Amino acid sequence: MSDKKNILFIMFDQLRWDYLSCYGHPHLDTPNIDWLAAQGVRFNRAYIQSPICGSSRMSTYTGRYVHSHGASNNKVPLKVGEITMGDHLRRAGVDCWLVGKTHMEADAEGMARLGLEPDSVIGVRVAECGFDVFERDDGMRPEGPEGSYDPRGAMAYNEWLREKGYDSDNPWHDFANSGLDAEGNVQSGWFLKNSAYAANIDEPDSETPYLTTRAMEFMQSTDAPWCCHLSYIKPHWPYIVPEPYASMFGPEHVLPVVRSESERQQAHPVLKAFMDTPVGQSFSREDVREAVIPAYMGLIKQVDDQMGRLFDWLKETGRWDNTAIVLTSDHGDFLGDHWLGEKTFFYEQSVRVPLIVYDPSPEADATRGTVSEALVESIDLAPTFLEMSGAEAPKHILEGESLLPILHGTREDSLRDCVICEYDYSGAPLANGLGHTIEQAQMYMVADKRWKMIHFESGDRPMLFDMVNDPDELTDLGNSEEHTATLALMYEKLHRWARRVSQRTTVGHNGLMARRKARSTKGIVIGVPEEGDMDAELTVKYRGVKAKPWQDVKRNAKVCPECSHVFKSNGWDGIDAHWRSKHDDVMPYEEAWPLIKTGAYKKA
């Protein structure tokens, strides 16, 4: 094996940070993920960069804020020029492979402009977020009257299910993500009430075990060193899970909802629009929560069991001691908290994610089983992986910071004093309802260990929460005169972030520092009064040089009027011989000569 560690980068989709027992859930026991936390460091303040799948993942994969990479929502392509985790790692001698979901939208227009063929090695990497693909499965095969949402979604998985006898045009929906009533009718997992059904599929054939198996097959197929992004689809909706997990939890395990009536009645106008969306209204109903949340918990319990299967396999095959493991999520899920469903707002239920890092190296022994309260962001993973691989992170490109000093106990905290999250809702129907322009439909979160502020480009007042005295975020202090100084402080942090240099990615910090000290050896002389005021060797081309007066130069030099060839020294004699050999077919020299001599010749 190589001296470099392998990196198993596990991401779940829509997994809330507080729905694991190591993060404090009272009913959902996740012993395998808890065990991983006991082998490494559990980060308690890990934040994503956008509360939506695509944008959050693009920040993780590029190590850059949404404002920098520009993929501001789902179906907004990542610019073809963005450098990704895979690009950085390959340069460090580590292959980077995908098993599962990315939610990547390729920049087809940019690829065509640059002549990148989609089926070339480079073209595939650009189209797949920098990964080499073992299997991409975004886990989404919805179909409507206009066709499929994602024609590639669950493609290999669907074919695999058909080979196992699940006879359907779309077994992803009809079996893996739907139930079956007593009369044999498919009860679609898209409808929230059907979350109470068990998915009509043998549990080993469902999506989470399938991807675990595919990850094992990848690791068996390749030599070290590698980074494998094992990107699970669940517990993302449709909220439905097969037995035995479908029966493990019931309404009695559903935690009390985090919301208040005053919060709803006094809601900020933009927040109110999110509360009033169909998904917000649905999750405001207790019958919906009592159907969905037990299924959501069952999906997480299945995830944890698969982690146990995976970790045991790594140990049995001798891979455990040379494999770093990072476990996280792309965002959370409101599940009715704050009168919201889904994830597109800045409360902790969405923007705070689990993050557990196991580093097998001896340097990490001192921190095993510890909990870090450092402010960390998803963009920190790319520089962490690079440092784990023995490479230096290019700071002019990667905006996060390596977590290795915290993992190795040489530093307790991160270098930042706040975290940033962004959301662009300009393409959402609620932007129309609010009357917001494209430019106005943007909002930003800046948070430190005490305060969280939300800024709206619509011109509405900010929101402010005291995370120490109001950890449930039920009291919005954004219009409190007593907190004007706090708002000013948080705005200064947001403005400092906005002023950062993030788009100069072609010249690194070291190159700029070298320019400061370098002497100009290419002949540029600026602001030097006399020759003796600078090193003679730098002006050697400008000293001791002789030249003829320009009048003599012009007098001797002649130009052929037909082809503009210049005769510097032999004047008319040169044109005579030149014309007879090159242009006599245009006009005989005897006829041309008088015209040339008087300057009356016109080019043919």
Quick synopsis:
This protein is an alpha/beta fold and 604 residues long.
Q: What would the principal axes of the Cα set say about the shape?
A: elongated
Number of strands: 19
Structural class label: alpha/beta
Radius of gyration: 32 Å
Number of helices: 22
Low-confidence stretches: none
Largest sheet: 9 strands, mixed
Beta-strand residue fraction: 5-15%
Give the overall average pLDDT: 94
Notable features of this structure?
alpha/beta, 604 residues, four-stranded antiparallel sheet, 22 helices, nine-stranded mixed sheet
Layout of SSEs?
Blueprint: E1 6-12, H1 31-39, E2 41-47, H2 53-62, H3 66-69, H4 85-91, E3 95-100, H5 108-114, H6 121-127, E4 132-136, E5 143-144, E6 147-148, H7 155-163, H8 171-176, E7 178-180, E8 186-188, H9 207-221, E9 226-231, H10 261-265, H11 269-275, H12 278-283, H13 286-316, E10 323-329, H14 348-351, E11 352-358, E12 370-372, E13 376-377, H15 381-388, H16 404-407, E14 419-424, H17 429-434, E15 442-447, E16 451-456, E17 463-466, H18 484-498, H19 509-517, H20 550-556, E18 558-559, E19 566-567, H21 571-582, H22 589-598
Parallel strand pairs: 1-9, 1-10, 2-12, 2-13, 3-4, 3-9
Antiparallel strand pairs: 2-11, 5-6, 7-8, 10-11, 14-15, 15-16, 16-17, 18-19
Helix pairs in contact: 9-13
